[in-house]
Amino acid sequence: MSRRLYGQNDYYRMQNHCLLPVRWLPPEAITDHKFSTSSDVWALGVTIWEVFSYGEVPFAELNNFEMVSYAMAGMRPPRPKSCPVAMYELMKRCWSIVPDDRIRPEEALLDPCFNTNSIRVHQCLSNVRTVANHTHICIFQDHRKVATFL
């Protein structure tokens, strides 16, 4: 994640060429190694997509090079079947090719799709049982308990 920065044009640029999780990164982070709050918003959109796709890997059928080309061409992961349209619209606002056009984190959290009457976390998690051999997901009957669990 980016460092908290102050100033409209500030960003964090990686100096070393370490391995990066390209499936969660926006084009500017991949091509220019620029990390900002806007790049975090892109990653937030991918993470939300993962939740609604029950932990699938974004663009799993593509290798990393193909995935980068795909994202830079404006292609995005499809809406998961379990994902409400309003939530997918929020994800797309996270994935704008222009960093300044992405939704701000504060706006994302205030979006009506996070209203407890329109999305229920426990419905999304109801089909998830075991993510790996030793990793179990707690199924919450009351979505309000998730916040206290975190």
Automatic annotation (TrEMBL):
Pfam families: PK_Tyr_Ser-Thr (PF07714). GO terms for molecular function: ATP binding; transmembrane receptor protein tyrosine kinase activity. Residues 1-114 form the Protein kinase domain. GO terms for cellular component: plasma membrane; receptor complex. GO terms for biological process: cell surface receptor protein tyrosine kinase signaling pathway. InterPro entries: Kinase-like_dom_sf, Prot_kinase_dom, RTK, Ser-Thr/Tyr_kinase_cat_dom, Tyr_kinase_cat_dom. This is Protein kinase domain-containing protein.
